[in-house]
Amino acid sequence: MEKIVREKPITGLDVAEESEEYPVATEKGALVLQDEDYQTVAFLAKSLSDENRLRIILCVSNGKKSVSSIVEELGLSQPLVSHHLKELKRSLLVKIERSGPFIYYELVDPRILDVIRTLSTVATDLLTARKTF
Description:
single chain, alpha+beta, three-stranded antiparallel β-sheet, two-stranded antiparallel ribbon, 5 helices
């Protein structure tokens, strides 16, 4: 995974300014969510909380892949991959395309990769700063 270099330190949660496309309000530099957003954000976070799902997301981020190609590339069992793809589809993170008897999966929105990169950077920073285990 590539290393991300920040030009400035993140204070609290730096977020994009509020816009019609991204209706996020900030208050004194802090992230403010609407009541209905908490459940949505928690649902997405839960979908990203499994290592195998993260691996599958990264696998299909490079283009459309069949279940068998994901199985081969990641070395996971077919039932496990199918289970996680079902969850990722339910979470609206992957979409399917049927071509004859084949089903191909791909990432719905490349911004999810930015979320994963940010989580990876924060996790690395937190673990580096940790003094006790």
